[in-house]
Amino acid sequence: MTRAVSLRGLSKTYARAATAVDRFSLDIAPGEFLVLLGPSGCGKSTVLRMIAGLEDITEGELLLDGEYANDVPPRERGMAMVFQSFALYPNLTNRHNIGFPLKVQYPHEDHSARIEATARMLGIDDTLDSYPNQLSGGERQRVAMGRAISRRPSVFLMDEPLSNLDAKLRNHLRAEIAQLTDELGVTTIYVTHDQAEAMSLGDRVAVMRAGVLQQVSTPRETYAVPANVFVAAFIGTPRINLLQAVVHAPLAERMCIDLGRQRLPLPEPLSHDLQLLRIQQGRPVVVGLRPEAARIAPPSHARPGEVPLTGIVEHTEYQGHEALVHLNTGSRRAVVPDLESARPGPGPGSRAPGRLGRIKERAGALAKPRSSAADGPEAGAPDAHTPERATIRAGDLVLRTGPDTRLRTGAQVPLLVDLGQLYVFDHRGRRICPAPTEIPGLYE
Ligand SMILES: Nc1ncnc2c1ncn2[C@@H]1O[C@H](COP(=O)(O)OP(=O)(O)OP(=O)(O)O)[C@@H](O)[C@H]1O
Ligand SMILES: [Mg+2]
C-alpha cells in the first residue's frame, strides 16, 4: 500500500526561536519519490518529522490520502523512517534488528520468511546472524533500511540516510535505494543537502531555503529553469557563474548586458525572452552562466545565438574526463547568501517568503590587484586573504572544456557565450530570463 501525502501551509515555530518551517505546501502523489533539498538548518528534518508525527504542527494541515492527519499518532500513520545515524540495537542480531518492528506489532507470529526476503532484497542475507558491530557502515545502513522495509510501510521517510558513508558507498547505496523504492512503489520522502543525490534520486525535488519552499519540479526542470538565483546556485557542480550586470537598452542602439569591463551584445532580432529584459534598463541584475554555457573559441567560430567575450586564464583544474578553466572577465561576482550556512538567525524580515536576500557585491579579480580566496564567491569571508592563497587568483567565470585543453595562465582567450543558455535574475533574485511562466507578482 502507498499513500498520498499533502502539506497545506505547514509551519513550525519552536519556542523562543525563529520559524523553522514557514507555510510549506506540497502534494506528494502515491508512489512518488520526493526529495527535500536544502542547506543545513533550512528546515528539511522538521518537515519530515511533522509528517512522521514526531513534531507538532504549529500551523497548517497534513493530509494523508486526503484526510486530515495532524493528530494521528505516529504509529498509526503507517510510515517508516530511516535516519542518518543507524540506530540499530547493538545487542540484537541483524535478523532481530530487521524483525523488531514486526515483533512489536505482531508478537505471536513467525516473521522469519519476511525478514529473510527483506534481507535478500538488500543483499545482506548472509549477515543475518551477525551483530551490528560486525558490519561495515554500508551493511549497517542496509539493516536499518531492512528494518524500515520489513514493516511494509505506506510511506518511507529518509533523513540523510547516506551521509555517514564514504562517497563510493554512498553512490552504490543511492542506486540501490532508487531501485528498491521503485520495486516497492512506496511513497518516499527523502531529505538531503547533497544536490547530486537529490538530482539522481528524485521524481521531483523540493528546494528549501530558510524554512521556505523555493521550487518543486523534476530534477531536469530544477536545473534548466530554476525559479530564482538561490535554486540556480544550489543545483549543479561546478556551481553556476553568477555575475553582477546592468541591462543597457538605448532606443536607437542594440541592447547589451554590461558586465563591468565587458559587454554582452544582444543580437537583433531579439528572442522574446531577451526582449523582456528591456524593462530592466539601467537596473542591476544578475547574469547566470552554467559552466557549459560558454566555450573557448574565436568570434569567427560563432554559431547563431553565440556572442563574444574575452577572458584571462587564471588556472585550470584537470578532472580526468574534462577540465575546468577559471577565467577572469573583469566582471563582479554576485553572492547568494544562505547557500552553505545555516539560515540566518531570527530577525524581522529574515523570513519573508519569496525574499531571496540581498545580492552582495564582491569585487572582481581584475578590479583588485590581489584576489581573495580561490574557492568560490560564496566561500569564506569577503576578503579572506591568506598568504598561501594570494598567489592563486580567482576567476569570475568557470567553464568546462575538454580534458586535453592546454592553456597558459595569464593568456587572454576568446570566448563564445551561448545566449540560449543565459539566465538573468532581477535584483530580488527572481528569474526573469528565460521568462517565468508564472504570472508576474504571483510569488511576491
Ligand atoms: N527542538 C528545536 N528547538 C529549537 N529550534 C530547533 C529545534 N529543532 C530544530 N530547530 C531549528 O529549526 C531550524 C531547522 O532545523 P532542521 O533540523 O529542520 O534543519 P535541517 O534542514 O534538517 O538541517 P540539517 O541539514 O543540518 O539536518 C534550525 O534553525 C534549527 O536550529
Ligand atoms: Mg536535518
Automatic annotation (TrEMBL):
Key words of the record: ATP-binding, Nucleotide-binding, Transport
One MF annotation (Gene Ontology) recorded for this entry: ATP binding
Stored SUPFAM superfamilies: MOP-like, P-loop containing nucleoside triphosphate hydrolases
Region feature (Disordered): 338-357, 362-394
ABC transporter domain boundaries: 5-235
Biased composition (Low complexity): 371-384
Domain of life: Bacteria
Any matching Pfam family: ABC_tran
PANTHER family: MALTODEXTRIN IMPORT ATP-BINDING PROTEIN MSMX, OSMOPROTECTIVE COMPOUNDS UPTAKE ATP-BINDING PROTEIN GGTA
The protein's name: ABC transporter ATP-binding protein
